[in-house]
Amino acid sequence: MTPKPKKMKTKAPGKAWSGRFTQGPDPRAEAYSSSLAVDIRLLPYDIIGSQAHVEMLGRQKILRRTEARKIQQGLQKILQEWEKGSIKITSQDEDVHMLVERRLYEIIGSVAGKMHTARSRNDQVLTDVKLYLQDECEEIIQGLRTIQKVFLKLAEKHMGWVMPGYTHMQVAQPVLVSHWLLAHLEALVRDETRFTRLLFGSLDELPLGSAALAGTTHPIDRQQVAKYLGFSRVTANSMDTVGDRDFCLEFLNAAAICAIHTSRLAEEIVWFSSSEYQFITLNQGFSTGSSIMPQKRNPDIAELIRGRSGKIVGNLVTLLTVLKGLPMTYNRDLQEDKEPIFNTSDILIQTFIVLAPMLESMRLNQEAMQSACQHGFPTATEAADHLVAQGVPFREAHAVVGRAVTYAAQEGLQLEQLSLAKWRNFHPQFQAGILQVVRLQNSIERKKSLGGTASSRVKAALKKVRNRLFTAKKAKKGK
User: Boundaries of CATH 1.10.275.10 in the chain?
Assistant: First the structure.
């Protein structure tokens, strides 16, 4: 009996662009230009985008329904291989798109070549990155809200505690500890707003269908693909689309501002946990020791948060620099957009993972905070405002209280220890109320302006934050 011939697997036809060339790329150039090591994480998004594209091609009769179904099944198998970690990479795979296409050829044969009808890698990669960033923004927003909840819990727990507020790293005016904690929370609220606007802004526009730069002659339906993938609208101009990385810059900018906020917070944690202040004691799990000094407990995690913020800022500058000299539409320079995005997202999410429990487990020292308010004459502004209320011009009042502070410092006294007679030696308009005005708690409670540190204002702020975090609907862009 004549044996049956073995069924041969269909191989993917070389490089996607090889038809114009009579020789392959130099191995050194190929290694230099390969992006697979970076963009491999886009594979599930590449599959999702390709499935949407093929579904549309079938509905528009650009592909036969049987062909579209076969491609869909092959793509699903690749996705399963990715999820199992069994997908194999070859030297032929210059990027994630070619990896998917090559593997699809191996699974379903030459019909795989029809998947790329009416699109280019230019609009394909943009779709991948936008889908990826949608997921990352949602995770970042969730991380920001988690940390806000920690701040809210701390602020409610320590309501009524007093600490110095600082300007120029000098004691300035007394504030409630809860007011300080809510100050950091408010910065994170703005960060959340930036990422939410991005999620429903430029990340909500579908690039697919722009093709290389001019659109396509095939009767595609971009709105259908947008609906399939969860985009609200499609981009307006194909030339602008393929060269646009504004959404990447917006992401990096939002991340850089957020990183600056976490860095400033980390700086205060380092500062306030020092032996000079002792306002904060970090949980030992978020501290480290010295290799030579056995007494040390160092705030290393806070220092790393502060240090890694510089990488995120650097990533923004990197992409700005890449883009600044590029002409319209696609240039290979744009391949360099992914590494700063991926690195930034990784750092920010990892920061949130460690920051929330570090904050939640730290201990605040009420006695040290209260004691620090006895230095630096933090209620001096109240004394000046007392004179202003009697009709004295503020600049005159400022000078008068400055002289009173100098006297108190020389005598080793607090302002509240000065008698009414002594105050009137500095200015006759001082009234008996000055003796109460310069007391610490009274100083705080008098700050009743909107956004001020008075207990009534802080309690109202806490209520507003709690309502927003626990009753407001979570903004989420579904796909």
Answer: 33-117
Catalytic residue among 91, 290, 371, 456: 290
375 among known catalytic residues: no
What pLDDT is recorded for position 2? 46
**pLDDT number for residue 293:** 81
Nearest to 177 by CA among 453, 468, 417: 453
Q: How far out from the chain centre does Cα 22 lie?
A: 47
Residue 5 confidence class, pLDDT cut points 50, 70, 90: very low
Mean pLDDT of the chain, nearest integer:
93
Point out the catalytic residue in the list 168, 275, 291, 449: 168
pLDDT tens, position by position, 301-347: 999 999 999 999 999 999 999 999 999 999 999 999 999 999 999 99
**Residues of CATH 1.10.40.30 domain(s) within the chain?**
380-471
Q: pLDDT confidence of 473, banded at 50, 70, 90?
A: low
Q: Which of 73, 74, 81 is nearest to 10 (CA)?
A: 74
How does pLDDT run across 115-132, given as a tens digit for each residue?
999 999 999 999 999 999
The class (CATH top level) of 33-117 is: mainly alpha
| Superfamily of structural domain 380-471 | Fumarase/aspartase (C-terminal domain) (1.10.40.30)
Residue spans in the chain of domains classed CATH 1.20.200.10: 122-158+166-372
- Give the model confidence (pLDDT) of 335-378 as tens digits: 999 999 999 999 999 999 999 999 999 999 999 999 999 999 99
pLDDT of residue 278: 96
- Active site annotation includes 53: no
Please identify, in words, the CATH class of the domain defined by 122-158+166-372.
mainly alpha
